[in-house]
Write a structure and sequence with these properties.
Elements lengths: L12 E5 L3 H12 L3 E6 L3 H6 L9 E2 L2 H8 L8 E11 L6 E6 L2 E7 L3 H14 L3 E4 L4 H9 L3 E4 L24 E9 L18 E7 L3 E10 L3 E11 L4 H7 L3 H15 L4 H4 L3 E2 L7 E4 L4 E2 L3 E3 L5 E4 L5 E2 L7 H18 L6 H26 L6 H13 L1 H12 L10 H12 L3 H6 L19
Parallel strand pairs: 1-2, 1-8, 2-7, 4-10, 8-17
Antiparallel strand pairs: 3-6, 4-5, 4-6, 9-12, 9-13, 9-14, 10-11, 11-12, 15-18, 16-17
The structure holds flavin-adenine dinucleotide (FAD).
């Protein structure tokens, strides 16, 4: 095969379009596996790192980090957490109630690193190893030419870009519209470590916070490694589309209004935390440290044919896009890429449609399907009402159940075995070591949560 992307050597050629986490991971992984790689990006390196917000927070909960380690060494010591402090509230006004809380150790490490830094580190290593990086916006004509002149062409243009090349897989796609309005921002001003948020638990800021409001949505707050500012705090508001937070999220227009909106929500809905949250400030040096929007959870047929009849395959969000509430998107991306690199390295034949479809099917069975389902669980999908009704009270009285619930972020596959009420009760019995009815019988509503005070938070 000759043409664009060929360098005259005998190595098999790979074209990758899009230089987010998926594209840069694939570029580095395929280069290390001995392929001749060209990475196409609509933005240059500086723009990718400094002119756009990170696509998401990209916390890697536990096991996905093992696949990531197949692509690149672990370069980051900041942003690692070992557990999560969860609080559930319900009602409004006089009926407002602190329903339950739990604070498990995950039993694994979760790592929250700015996706722009992760991608830039991969891109830098790819370039150091002689990889070709072409800055161009690839359209449907160009993808046809690229696919015609490479042995393997991967599309990693995220949820938009060239994703329309890949038809939606209707049977695997559960929603036709977003389930949450999303607001993400990174703020600075509080140390990581046990002194910050110490009123929530002895782990304090070694754990992330997850506040749920039964009517309006959820807020995640976690220690984060910002690409320039270092140890910071990342926030995600998951606003239910019919709740009171959604309109507030839609009105955000910059980092300062993102911070103010989050502070307003904490003051009204989570006043226990508001004195601590108030100490956090925007990162002046990074005006694009925030993002708002929404994801329509979508699974696509990940192999398609270009106009000229050439095969292309989707990776990352282009193949499977999930709402971020269960932190599965970046994880799913890295697992897909690491496994595809290994499979391609040992595959002798053509990268045909059949071969690529079979590889995507393996990915779906290995992780994709479970990632979609655990996201539906955390979204509170009616199909999982029984799971939530039983597992949250059980988690509040048994820390093993709480750990197992968050163990599903690391490996969501056990969820696929929990089809009905008896399965969930069996799961609670198995992880708690006592009959589920006894566990649930001990549950009592929280009463009143502990609060932040001026002295309970450490300002950096
Ligand atoms: C608020 C939020 C929080 C999240 N939190 C988590 C989390 O905690 N854990 C987790 O695992 N996941 C999380 N995610 C998901 C995660 O961020 C994504 O799954 C991941 O970043 C997707 O990477 P990607 O490379 O597929 O796409 P992208 O990052 O979107 O990259 C696509 C790239 O392609 C480029 N491009 C587009 N069109 C073209 C074109 N025509 N030609 C050339 N280049 C093009 C774009 O400019 C971009 O650089 C979160 C997502 C959101 C929105």
């Amino acid at each position: 095969m000759a043409g664009e992307g060929q360098s005259g050597d005998a190595r098999r050629t790979v074209a990758i379009v899009g230089a987010g986490l998926a594209g840069t991971s694939a570029a580095l992984g395929f280069t290390d596996a001995g392929f001749d790689v060209t990475l196409y990006s609509d933005r240059d390196r500086e723009s990718l790192r400094d002119k756009v917000p990170p696509t998401g927070v990209g916390v890697l909960f536990g096991k996905p980090r093992e696949w990531d380690a197949e692509i690149i060494d672990d370069l980051y010591e900041v942003g690692n957490t070992t557990g999560i402090s969860v609080r559930l509230h319900s009602g409004s006004g006089a009926d407002r109630a602190d329903v339950l809380e739990f604070n498990p150790d995950y039993g694994y490490v979760a790592q929250a690193v700015d996706l722009r830094l992760r991608a830039d580190d991969r891109l830098g290593r790819f370039l150091d190893k002689g990889g070709r990086f072409e800055v161009t916006s690839v359209d449907t004509d160009r993808i046809d030419a690229i696919a015609g002149s490479h042995d393997l062409t991967l599309v990693a243009t995220g949820k938009g870009g060239l994703s329309a090349l890949f038809p939606v897989n209707e049977s695997r796609t559960h929603y036709r519209e977003p389930q949450r309005r999303l607001l993400q921002v990174t703020l600075t001003g509080l140390d990581h470590g046990p002194d910050t948020f110490a009123y929530r638990s002895s782990a304090g800021g070694d754990h992330s916070l997850f506040n749920l409001d039964s009517e309006n949505g959820e807020i995640f707050v976690g220690p984060f490694l910002h690409k320039d500012a270092g140890a910071t705090w990342s926030f995600i508001v998951f606003a239910k589309t019919d709740g009171a937070w959604a309109a507030k999220v839609d009105e955000v227009e910059d980092a300062a209004s993102a911070r103010q909106t989050i502070l307003d929500i904490f003051t009204e809905y989570f006043p226990h935390d508001a004195p601590a949250i108030e100490k956090l400030q925007v990162i002046e040096a990074d005006p694009v440290s925030w993002l708002k929007g929404a994801v329509t959870p979508t699974v696509r047929h990940a192999v398609a044919t270009t106009r000229g009849g050439h095969t292309v395959a989707a990776i990352g969000d282009t193949a499977i896009a999930v709402d971020p509430v269960a932190g599965q998107g970046a994880a799913n991306t890295l697992i897909q890429v690491a496994e595809l690199v290994k499979a391609a390295k040992t595959h002798d034949g053509e990268f045909s449609t059949d071969w690529l479809e079979a590889e995507f099917e393996k990915h779906w069975q290995r992780r994709g399907w479970a990632a979609v389902e655990v996201t539906r669980l955390y979204l509170g999908d009616p199909d999982y009402a029984t799971h939530l009704e039983l597992s949250f009270p059980a988690a509040a009285v048994d820390t093993n159940v709480a750990s197992a619930l968050f163990g599903l972020l690391s490996d969501p596959n056990p969820l696929l075995t929990l089809g009905n009420r008896d399965d969930v009760l069996g799961f609670i019995t198995a992880v708690s070591g006592e009959p589920a009815d006894d566990v649930l019988g001990r549950f009592e509503p929280a009463g009143r949560f502990s609060s932040a005070t001026e002295s309970a938070t450490a300002v950096s």
